[in-house]
Amino acid sequence: MPVPGSLERSFSVAYTIHKGRQRHQRESRRKSSIQCQLNPQPEQQRSVSPIPLKECLDLTTTRRAALAAPLVATAVATVANPARALIQTGQERDSTRQSQNAIDRLQSRVSTFQLGNGMKWIVLERHNAPIVACHTYADVGAADESTGMTGIAHLLEHLAFKGTRLIGSRGFERESEALDQLDEIFYALRDAKVAKNSKLVAKLVEEFARAQEQAAKFSAASQYGSLIERQGGVGLNAQTSQDSTEYFVSLPANKLELWMALESGRFMAPVFRDLYAEKEVVKEERRLRVENSPYGRFTEAFTEAAFPGQAYGRPIIGYPSDFEKIGRREVTDFFTKNYTPCKLTCAVVGDVNPVEVEKLATRYFGSWKTPCASPTSSSPRSYSELWRTQDGWDDFAASKPPPGEILRMSSPAQPLYMEGYYRPASWSSDDPVLSVISDVLAGGRVSRLYKRLIAPSRVLSAECLSSFPGDKFPCLMMLYASPTPGSSSTEKLAGLVHDQLQDLVRQGVEEGELVPIRKSTRASLLEALGSNSSMARILSTYEATAGSWNRVLEETREIESVTRDDVVRVASKLFTPSNRFFRRWARERDDASRDSGSRSSPVILSAMLLDRCHRGKERTLKSRLKHFSLRGQIDAETQKYFSEVLALLETIADDKEREALCASALEEARGKELRLASHPSCGRALEKLIQSFDAARLLSFLGQCTADFASMAMDPSASHVAEMMLGSLSEILQQNGGDAGLISSIESAVARISEVLQGSALEVMGNKYGSHVLRKFTLLAAGLVETEGKDGLSRKLGRMDSMAKTCECIHAGFPRILKQLTSEILVACKSSMSERRMDQFSSLVFQTILKALHGTGSDTSSAIATLLGFDQTEMISPKVLERILELMENQNGSHLMEVILQVASNEVYAKLLEEIFKGNLKRLATHQFSNFALQTLIAFARQEDQVSLFLDELGKDFTELIKKKRAGVIVSLLGISRLVATVICPKCASRDTLVLRLLHLEGHDSDGKSGRKMSILGCVMLQILFTFSQDCSQQYYKSFSVLEMTQILEAIKDKAGCHVVEAFLKSPASPKQKHAVIERLKDHFAVLATDTKAHYIVTKCFEAANLKLKESIVMELIGVQNDLSKSRHGPYILGRLNVAKYEKAPDKWRQSQQTSHAHKEDYEKLFKREQPEHHGAPRRKKQKYQ
């Protein structure tokens, strides 16, 4: 069928790009390219808070946004395919001239100024979109920490967005007092531990926990981030390295002043709230990334030995012995000493006016008069003065350890060899040459290590890092490699790497090897112009460390001017035996074949090391290129093509046209799926395309992505594409369950993806994005989807999300694949299970595995035993018991235990209750996290004797639980128990005040009165009690029936209390008690009926009243008929009570009410059956997938 004109033109453009890209007119390409560089499209953020890979060697930070992606967009394409990078001579000249014009225009748009206190500002005007990127570079990193106080710089990153005195507090004066008391207890506890006073330590630990809870009452630490998000901010984050700490965000341009106000408050009046809670987070991070990771331990040992007694030798995350000693005093001292105005450089890039930026900066930061720290070798001034003035080769000669020292470590992980060569800091005049050497060795598929070692399968992986672990001070050029499967000789590995280095020294480098490096350097700079956030980071970093942002342009020219003689000269200095430092580990031979608990993919390791080295301060353009080589970048033409595809998909309604467009796009994506998915805008186009794919095209595209599925899963953008593919597969399976051929094809595709995920299970499950994809894949293999519930009560009680979720079966699933996948994940995690199950993202994966296995009998029980670390056939040992109790006292561990208890069989549940919970109920009930696991244990009790156990062990502590705000445990008990005669306030003077005390459970005074809103917990408890029979809840029915009129009205007008009144009126309480309550409400029914919130209580009172009371209610409503008829709810009330009939014929109305009452009694006698008495827990509703 003919295509409309506009669509025809769009199809023509898409078809031309797809079929004739290399035949595209040269002039059109040049104009398009330079236009993209000079007028880039506005950034589009995919997620609120993009966070990078969280891997075992990634020790620098846990909250870092992947910012510099646009810096390498065309650089990767240049290295991979020089023909597409305008290699032809004529095109080279045109491209160089146009790129130089783009750089010249950049120089004219940048302006700088410095405040009187020394704070530097740099502004880049870009008026193409109303957005602004703000980047604050603090010349403060882990290297600035003093000996014995490591980890503070990284901890400050965790505390970066906890707020100020004005933001993040529910009353700063009271919060300040609570924090002071908390600090006092912390330092007393620290001294008691040093003195080894165990009794005092035990006492202070309890006091410290209570003080933390008290301080948490006044904390609203999430306000800072929420405020930014509500105002349109994205990418709010911070990151720490050895050399610096950086803070960044992107906002609408009209919110620049908001950012100024918040940023000044953060630096001038910070409040380090939640400090001790964040310390626990960092401790768990270290356990996961270092102590339970062979690569983490090995890298830390390598760095310590390479830089003995130096700042670079200390881990960014800190030593545990140092970290334990850090309190608010030490953090405040470090912040005050190091975070001074002269150490900060702010870059503002976007739709802004430099004059206005300077005015705002002066207004919000000009009054900051903190004195600057004394100049050091790392200060911006000395750093910039040294820039390119010396080669720096003599600065580290005395600090090197003896050469030839070898450290061996045994581990079941893949063997690894690390080798470093000492090099000068980045200010050295030889730094550009060192950057080129790094790229000659490992700069993509045309590099020497790839062509000579990886391609012929002599090694599995080999990489080179230009500078490690920082570059402000003398550092290392580091190389590392992994052997091929079946080989474990690190000596042979070292020889292969060393031969390549010596060949570079002896034979030099060919001119053809330098050409792509020069081109990719300039391409990287030009592509950075397409991103506000990347430019903000580059400008602030160079301005702070090199003295001027213009140095980035100088460095580009320096790299382009490096000659073959320069490479040989510097390589001869660098790759010498006396300058060499190396470490190696050997695989643990006796366990290598059976224990894969710590195994990690060397390719993923490469990505992790790159991320660790260059995340904090990616100063050189080539290091930025290497850092993002795993994330695919797309050239301008491809971006344009997929943008047009996305626009067409929004408008095309004809199925044939959409099919043709999908076929064209699928062909265009072939071979670059990962790069497309990793690009934000192209990724969105792929998501839209996947929604339009039929089963055949979806399976084809999935097959193309299978090899890179693990990498896609861990990428902020590509993970959305991976999830969309899995979601589409679920829909196809749900709709085509009877097609055996299609099911078989899908099963094969799912099996291949499962194998890929199993190979990188540890990395994927510990990653924020990868965890979500792996959970979705697990549910797909089980034939389930997770649906959100609307359990408001569970959220109020602080329950985990999964408590309000149910799994719905949508297809038969793939049991064999599911069993293999879950078994491999559990086996891989076995050696680090203690830490994995407390990790936020790994814990969620375990929860999903349990849900997927639920109903499989022995598989579920085996998974529970593996997760908790016990043998099903033996008693749980005291050591394992204590670990399980500690697990439940961890937030993520408590969530995991809740799911374990939900899916446990009767036998496993009984074992857990008898050997773990029994005797520890009070400890668990009073803890802020474990009490939720206990609530689940109670809610899923199977037998009456189990309920009796709970009551016997906890009954005497109910008053204490209420005082400690742990009444949720009591709510759970009430939900399953009929034995509640004296569970609340058993010693109170008058039972008539029971209901009143529960209504004001969390705020009542000695008289049971309160001016605050009623307790939701207390109201829920009363609602449960009012479902019990008279013999169980008589005292509560009586207590409610004697409430005063004002107290009943207060309850009706309260959001939670009104449900209690309704529950009482519908309860088994005697008619006399109900009538007494209704009698007290006389003369108030007219007011209640017109109230938009309390009106339904009128109908409930009418239903429970006798004829006399019904008549009095109707008589009151006659006077407000007109008002009621105009409201939304009024006509219903008037009709339900038949007010009009009473006004016309009262006798007939009375007769009809009597008749109705008689019919109701007859119906109940004939049909209403008495509900059977339940003992223990109510029977659970059968899951849909059982």
From TrEMBL:
Protein's UniProt keywords contain Protein biosynthesis: no
Domain spans labelled PUM-HD: 586-978
Annotated Pumilio repeat ranges: 879-914, 915-952, 1041-1079
SMART domains to which the protein is assigned, alphabetical: Pumilio
GO CC term, one of those recorded: nucleolus
Stretches with biased composition (Basic residues): 18-32, 1177-1186
A GO biological-process term: ribosomal small subunit export from nucleus
SUPFAM superfamilies: ARM repeat (SSF48371), LuxS/MPP-like metallohydrolase (SSF63411)
Biased composition (Basic and acidic residues): 1158-1176
InterPro entries reported in the protein's UniProt record: ARM-like (IPR011989), ARM-type_fold (IPR016024), Metalloenz_LuxS/M16 (IPR011249), NOP9 (IPR040000), Pept_M16_N (IPR011765), Pept_M16_Zn_BS (IPR001431), Peptidase_M16_C (IPR007863), PUM-HD (IPR033133)
Gene Ontology MF terms in the entry: metal ion binding; metalloendopeptidase activity; RNA binding
Cited PANTHER family: NUCLEOLAR PROTEIN 9
Family: Belongs to the peptidase M16 family.
Record protein name field: PUM-HD domain-containing protein
Taxonomic classification: Eukaryota, Viridiplantae, Streptophyta, Embryophyta, Tracheophyta
